[in-house]
């Protein structure tokens, strides 16, 4: 009973001590006259510096002992494939050369894999293009409006001229007129139609979401098109390597520069095989 009594007293005192606001602990900063020396080193910084110093000291001592006990006539076969370059001791990799037949089989597998990936990306790009129709692509022409007076230019309203709402005035496609919107011929989700009765900005918010989804779809289309081009380049490089492993005399040629290109621009090289008569 006495122990439990004192335990309850100590518990009450500790909770009371935690309830009282304490003075915040502040680290001593570098005096103004010594700020040119950098930050003031604390004890934890000294501990790290001392550990690093002792670690280096022990390593130097171990290396000195090895150098003193070294046998000048010592030899082991690892010395044959080791060298010191710029003060760094390195071991050359002892790898066996892969036979040409096995390498051709691996390159053929790589070419087949890249061909499959290229076909998959091509189908995805075609599917995205069919759904988007490239409607947000760069305009091929311009729509010029002629106004008689300069005063009319300042007061000109594009939405009123085309007979639509301001949210659809910038469109080059499916620009619905105000009469069509009044006849409720637009397919608007039921939730948006119900919200339009209470909030007139509900249609603008819904239309902004549609624009955002379409923009993300066009971004995906652009990324997949770039990925398709990279896969095509990699497949062409692998197929060229596979062809170079085959038989037949060949020479490396450089393509002639196209008309209008700078003369100093590097041109792509290609290989030309000597024609052989097949039986």
Q: pLDDT below 50 for ≥5 consecutive residues: which ranges? A: none
Oligomer: single chain
Q: What order do the SSEs take from the amino end to the carboxyl end, as H and E?
A: HHEEHHHHHHEE
| Percent range for β-strand residues | 5-15%
Mean pLDDT: 79
Largest sheet: 2 strands, antiparallel
Distance separating the two termini? 110 Å
What is the molecular shape?
Answer: flat
Task: Give, in spatial order, the strands making up the sheet with the most strands.
Answer: 1-2
Number of helices: 8
Helix content class: 40-55%
Structural class category? mainly alpha
Rg over CA atoms, rounded to whole Å, is 39 Å
Query: How many strand units?
Result: 4
Summary keywords:
mainly alpha, 279 residues, 8 helices, 4 strands, two-stranded antiparallel sheet
Can you characterise this structure?
The chain is mainly α and 279 residues long. The chain is built from eight helices and four strands, in the order ααββααααααββ. It has a two-stranded antiparallel ribbon with strand order 1-2. The longest helix is centred in the C-terminal third of the chain and has 43 residues, at 202-244. The radius of gyration is 39 Å and the shape is flat. The termini are far apart. The relative contact order is 0.06. The model has no long low-confidence stretch (mean pLDDT 79).
């Amino acid at each position: 009973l006495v122990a439990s009594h004192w335990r309850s007293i100590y518990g009450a005192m500790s909770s009371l001590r935690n309830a009282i606001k304490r003075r915040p602990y502040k680290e001593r900063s570098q005096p103004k006259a010594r700020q040119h020396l950098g930050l003031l080193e604390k004890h934890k910084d000294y501990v790290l510096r001392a550990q690093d110093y002792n670690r280096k000291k022990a390593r130097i001592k171990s290396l000195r002992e090895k150098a003193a006990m070294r046998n000048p006539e010592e030899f082991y076969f690892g010395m044959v494939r080791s060298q010191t370059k710029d003060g760094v001791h390195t071991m050359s990799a002892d790898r066996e050369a892969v036979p040409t037949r096995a390498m051709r089989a691996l390159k053929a597998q790589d070419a087949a894999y890249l061909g499959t990936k290229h076909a998959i990306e091509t189908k995805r790009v075609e599917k995205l293009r069919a759904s988007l129709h490239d409607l947000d692509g760069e305009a091929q022409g311009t729509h010029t409006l002629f106004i008689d007076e300069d005063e009319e230019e300042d007061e000109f309203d594009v939405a009123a001229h085309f007979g639509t709402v301001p949210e659809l005035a910038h469109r080059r496609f499916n620009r619905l007129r105000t009469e069509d919107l009044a006849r409720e011929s637009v397919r608007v989700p039921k939730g948006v139609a119900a919200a339009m009765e209470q909030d007139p900005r509900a249609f603008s918010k819904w239309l902004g979401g549609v624009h955002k989804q379409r923009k993300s779809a066009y971004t995906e289309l652009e990324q997949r098109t770039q990925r398709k081009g990279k896969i095509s380049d990699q497949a062409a490089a692998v197929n060229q390597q596979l062809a170079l492993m085959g038989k037949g005399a060949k020479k490396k040629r450089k393509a002639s520069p196209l008309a209008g290109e700078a003369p100093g621009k590097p041109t792509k090289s290609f290989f030309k095989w000597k024609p052989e008569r097949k039986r």
